[in-house]
Write a structure and sequence with these properties.
Pathway: Pyrimidine metabolism; CTP biosynthesis via de novo pathway; CTP from UDP: step 2/2. The chain is built from 18 helices and 23 strands. By secondary structure, the chain is of the alpha/beta class. Strand 8 and strand 9 form a beta hairpin.
């Protein structure tokens, strides 16, 4: 295609309607037609990135290969499209303002008064078109975070208005709204959608397509009514009902010809409807899997979005093992020596979750001791791997006061410590190892059997490392360091080979598991849990 086409996805009525899933589904359907597609998320909060945000407020922090801490929707984009996103795919208001202020301080604006229009909106528009200009994608889908009507979204909506005007048929707006069901009246109500579209029109944007989120099937008459009141073609009103899995959404959108409507509105040839064969195979395996594999998630955040990528990686791996992942959250703050057996005995496998800080850490040690002594398949991720090392040092090596410098500054047995070169850095984000790093695997290890290759690359998000001063002792006592970073000699993976499956990784393998390419470690872990 000669010119990049831009699709904007906005949301109204309520937040958390699934703009990320709709954006990913549109991307998937266009990609299946042979177009090159990328998706970006613009978040209207003033934080520079979600790295320092509370997971309870924002869900997990997703990490891109180039080490950017991003919104969890980027995980959906990667899982659906099998692409890799970067820092350029997630922009916040904080980054927009910082860029403009930095330019003003340098004197780039030659003494002009800096204003929201045109300076902030120009910076937003520059970022919207950045990936299209640089990589010549056929389609760039831009999801705007928040809800239409929020004061902080206004600069983004103004930028979309200008871009739609400038780009003509090369720009299109998909607006996602909610149609609530009033049980007392037994009716679905379209008024919130009408108001949301009116709000969008008041800032100069006429949506081209409406996607209506609903828990009940919408009648043809109701969709006609929405089309009439919102100035949208009848064929451009699409419903998005709750599905048993988010991975069904692209198929439901395809059934309603959402991709056809987009192509027609942008003046592109429609052509054959893609088969989506491998995608349908995945869904068939998922539907046909009747047996369950019970996995316990030991962590401190009692919120599914805080571990979103882990849940999806487990679900994908279970599907490819022809099982349903039956996942149980186990709050590590409540785990004690007295109740650990009761909490874990039913589980086929245990994940020790990542995280930061002291809270809930002792419960993770309790869980790990139980798993190690009862030979339960166990997967420690990031802090989970560090906890594996600490528990082993305390209960096998006999260093009862072993700890991480993160939890205890004065610990005499700092089996987990901060690297020398990071100690002088004070900026919270700057002390972390972020993004993809190389790792070389021991060919005689379970992880090598899973990956079937010696050289891997995985994504990191942590500040503390395994202390190599203890490496020889650990290996002698039975915990092997089987994955090493070739440049820094840092330990990336530990495992106890005498146990069924007891592996910890410094990195986050869940970030690189996708629908059509599940992660080898999760596949191997689920297989071990089934064998138990």
């Amino acid at each position: 295609m000669a010119e990049t086409k831009y699709i904007f996805v906005t949301g109204g009525v309520a937040s958390s309607l699934g703009k990320g899933i709709i954006s990913s589904s549109i991307g998937k359907l266009l990609q299946a037609r042979g177009y090159s597609v990328t998706i970006q998320k613009f978040d209207p909060y003033i934080n520079i990135d979600p790295g320092t945000l509370n997971p309870y407020e924002h869900g997990e922090c997703y990490v891109t290969v180039d080490g950017h801490e991003a919104d969890l929707d980027l995980g959906h984009y990667e899982r659906f499209l099998g692409i890799q996103t970067t820092k350029a795919n997630n922009i916040t208001t904080g980054r927009i303002y910082k860029s403009v202020i930095d330019k003003e301080r340098r004197g780039d604006y030659l003494g002009k008064t800096i204003q929201i229009i045109p300076h902030i909106t120009d910076e937003i528009k520059r970022n919207v078109k950045l990936l299209g200009n640089k990589y010549k994608f056929d389609f760039v889908i831009t999801e705007i975070g928040g809800t239409v009507g929020d004061i902080e979204s206004l600069p983004y909506l103004e930028s979309i208005r200008q871009l739609k005007w400038e780009l003509g048929r090369n720009a299109l707006c998909v607006h996602l709204t909610y149609v609530p069901y009033l049980a007392a009246a037994g009716e679905l109500k379209t008024k919130p959608t009408q108001h949301s579209v009116k709000e969008l029109q008041s800032v100069g944007i006429q949506p081209d397509i409406l996607v209506l989120r609903t828990e009940h099937n919408l009648s043809t008459n109701l969709k006609k009514k929405v089309a009439l009141f919102c100035n949208v073609d009848e064929s451009a009103v699409v419903q998005s009902m709750d599905m048993p899995t988010i991975y069904e959404v692209p198929l439901r959108m395809q059934e309603q010809k959402l991709d056809v409507t987009i192509l027609e509105k942008m003046g592109l040839p429609v052509g054959e409807t893609p088969e989506l064969g491998p995608w349908k195979d995945f869904l068939n395996r998922r539907h046909n899997a009747t047996e369950k594999v019970k996995i316990g998630l030991v962590g401190k955040y009692d919120l599914q979005d805080a571990y979103k990528s882990i849940l999806e990686a487990l679900s994908q791996a279970a599907t490819y093992n022809d099982r349903k992942a039956d996942i149980h959250f186990i709050n590590s703050e409540k785990l004690t020596d007295e109740n650990v057996e009761e909490s874990l005995k039913e589980m086929d496998g245990i994940i020790i979750c990542p995280g930061f800080g002291q809270r809930g850490i002792e419960g993770k040690f309790v869980a790990l001791k139980y798993c190690r002594t009862h030979n339960v398949p166990t997967f420690g991720i990031c802090l989970g791997m560090q906890c594996m090392a600490i528990e082993f040092a305390r209960n096998v090596l006999g260093y009862t006061d072993a700890n991480s410098r993160e939890m205890d500054e004065k610990t005499p047995h700092n089996v987990i410590d901060i690297m020398e070169e990071q100690k002088s850095i004070t900026n919270m984000g700057g002390t972390m190892r972020l993004g993809a790093y190389e790792c070389v695997l021991d060919p005689n290890s379970k992880v090598y059997q899973a990956y079937q290759t010696q050289h891997i690359q995985e994504r990191h998000r942590h500040r503390y490392e395994f202390n190599n001063d203890y490496k020889a002792e650990f290996e002698k006592a039975g915990m092997k360091c089987v994955g090493i970073n070739p440049e820094s000699d840092l330990v990336e993976i530990v495992e106890i080979p005498t146990l069924k499956w007891f592996i910890g990784t410094q990195f986050h393998p869940e970030y690189s598991s996708t629908v059509l390419k599940p992660h080898p470690l999760f596949l191997s872990f689920i297989k071990a849990a089934i064998d138990k």
